[in-house]
Write a structure and sequence with these properties.
562 residues; Gua_nucleotide_exch_fac_Ric8; elongated; 9 strands; single chain; mainly alpha; Chaperone_Ric-8_A/B; three-stranded antiparallel sheet; two-stranded antiparallel ribbon; chaperone
């Protein structure tokens, strides 16, 4: 009945009546996302009627009411086929100021129409394949970039920027060709980076360093939403950057990484919005070539170093809170480098682990990012390893490595996670922090937890990975050295010596038990419930017969050489 009444007024009524009936329809169905199939034909006709109203000279308020109802109806994919035409798309482009003219955004009264038109386009393009094809034909991506350039430095039209960016994200998500067009033809990388700079109000103190006001106000909700949409669009634009990175683009990627560092060090209006902002920043950092991630850390100036030391010295002992804050700040400095952004990433990773769900989507991006940063940048690796709750020098080995609440304990638990991707990246992160040395990894995790990684890397017999690291030696604590002879290599923790069960057996009993074990293993092997495995010369696992034959070949070759 709602559709019938609205359709009747839209077809025959004047602008005021149309506005009233559509406003009532919008208020009633604002939260409607599932529609009755019986009224499908009526909704199609209502859409067609609305488009006919939009081409007329009607008041702005009437246009807004028409677009609000169109946005609600466009949630239903089934009705979009007949109404998604080139003519109707051009109507929406004109209302959204995406047509070819050079009109500036000066009339504030038009802003609600622009925003609602962009919302309609987001729904229609996302839900209609025909609209997606028409977007390519109408060169919608270029028009969106042009609109962004008109409003990139104007904060009072954040809603327009936000939905422009969202539509750009949807287009680049659905069409790989548009990603390439945005990246190279439309210069989307610097444009979207400038949008982020504007949202964060960045003031540069050096080529890749920005001023951070830790006591400043949080981002407004509008600025946060704009930044999140820009980060998502940038992710699509740069999704293959690590494959095709050219030296000429290095500067632009470094600027973007510096903006993302700033993003990590600021907060949004709420804790949830801050996490969403940082999550999208982490995803985008994963696309940045690893050689450009060095801007995440920056050297302290002489003034900052002197100021930090003076702050600690000047604070009286009774000012415990301020002293703790200053000491916390000093722990984010390593080897003369500011590690605040890396500390934020580490805290973000721990929060995602503590959530206990959606590890593949929520945890693996930040773990992968920290792994690559640690592999490529020595200062980052050493800072992370030296953190008290990550891989500190071992002293207490009475508990298993997976038992406890430190980051190390949590990561070791993930090494046996059911999700293969999660367990691999958790193990890889710890392996890199241990400079890809098997003996160092086993010290912190135990052989049982590390077996999967070592088998995949062909390192079950020991050794180290393929990457080069500095040769500075890790020193064991006296507590660890004293406990080492009694550490169970499989579980990685201290165990009291257990009595040997065969010490009290006679020789006949030992032989009987040995043959019993041999017969059990033989039965399991013949029934293919168990397959004896061995190590090949390269350290990988293979069936025992094949491993023995390879060693035989090596011995024969050695004998021939002699």
């Amino acid at each position: 009945m709602d559709e019938e009444r609205a359709l009747y007024i839209v077809r025959a009524g004047e602008a005021g009546a149309i506005e009233r009936v559509l406003r009532d329809y919008s208020d009633k169905h604002r939260a409607t996302f599932k529609f009755e199939s019986a009224d499908e034909d009526k909704r199609k006709k209502l859409c067609e009627g609305i488009f006919k109203v939009l081409v007329k000279d009607v008041p702005t308020t009437c246009q807004v009411s028409c677009l609000e109802v169109l946005r609600i109806l466009s949630r239903d994919k089934k009705i979009l086929v007949p109404v998604t035409t080139k003519e109707n798309m051009q109507i929406l482009l004109r209302l959204a100021k995406l047509h070819e003219s050079d009109d500036s955004l000066e009339k504030a009264s038009e802003f609600p129409v622009i925003v609602e038109s962009l919302k309609c386009l987001c729904n229609i393009v996302f839900n209609s394949q025909m609209a997606q094809q028409l977007s390519l034909e109408l060169n919608l991506a270029a028009k969106l970039c042009n609109l962004l350039r008109k409003c990139k430095d104007r904060k009072f039209i954040n809603d327009i920027k936000c939905f422009d960016l969202r539509l750009l994200f949807v287009l680049s998500l659905l069409h790989t060709d548009i990603r390439s067009q945005l990246r190279y033809e439309l210069q989307g990388l610097p444009l979207l980076t400038q949008i982020l700079e504007s949202a964060f109000s960045i003031k540069w103190t050096d080529e890749y360093e920005s001023a951070i006001d830790h006591n400043g106000p949080p981002l407004s909700p509008q600025e946060t939403d704009c930044a999140i949409e820009a980060l998502k669009a940038l992710f699509n634009v740069t999704v293959d950057s690590w494959k095709v990175h050219k030296e000429s683009e290095s500067h632009q990627f470094r600027v973007m990484a510096a903006v993302l560092r700033h993003c990590l060090l600021i907060v949004g209006p709420t804790e949830d919005k801050t996490e969403e902002l940082h999550s999208n920043a982490v995803n985008l950092l994963s696309n940045v070539p690893v050689s450009c991630l060095d801007v995440l850390i920056c050297p302290l100036t002489h003034e900052e170093t002197a100021q930090e030391a003076a702050t600690l010295d000047e604070l009286p002992s009774d000012k415990t809170t301020e002293k703790d804050t200053a000491l916390k700040s000093s722990t984010m400095v390593y080897n003369g480098m500011n590690m605040e952004a890396i500390h934020v990433l580490l805290s973000f990773m721990e929060k995602r682990i503590d959530k206990g769900s959606s590890y593949r989507e929520g945890l693996t991006p930040v773990l992968s990012l920290l792994t690559e940063c640690s592999r490529a940048h020595r200062n980052i690796r050493k800072f992370l390893k030296d953190q008290e709750h990550v891989l500190p020098p071992l002293r207490d080995v009475t508990n298993r490595p997976e038992v406890g609440s430190t980051v190390r304990n949590k990561l070791v638990r993930l090494m046996t996670h059911v999700d293969l991707g999660v367990k691999q990246i958790a193990a890889e992160f710890l392996f890199v922090l241990c400079k890809e040395r098997v003996d160092s990894l086993l010290k912190y995790t135990g052989y049982g937890n590390a077996a999967g990684l070592l088998a995949a890397r062909g390192l079950l017999a020991g050794g180290r990975g393929d990457n080069w690291y500095s040769e500075d030696e890790d020193t064991d604590t006296e507590e660890y050295k004293n406990a080492k002879p009694n550490i169970n290599l499989i579980t990685g923790h201290l165990e009291e010596p257990m009595p040997n069960p065969i010490d009290e057996m006679t020789e006949e009993q030992k032989e009987y038990e040995a043959m019993k074990l041999v017969n059990m293993l033989d039965k399991l092997s013949r029934e293919e419930l168990l397959k004896p495995m061995g190590l090949k010369p390269d350290g990988t696992i293979t069936p025992l017969e094949e491993a023995l034959s390879q060693y035989s070949v090596i011995e024969e070759t050695s004998s021939d050489t002699d």
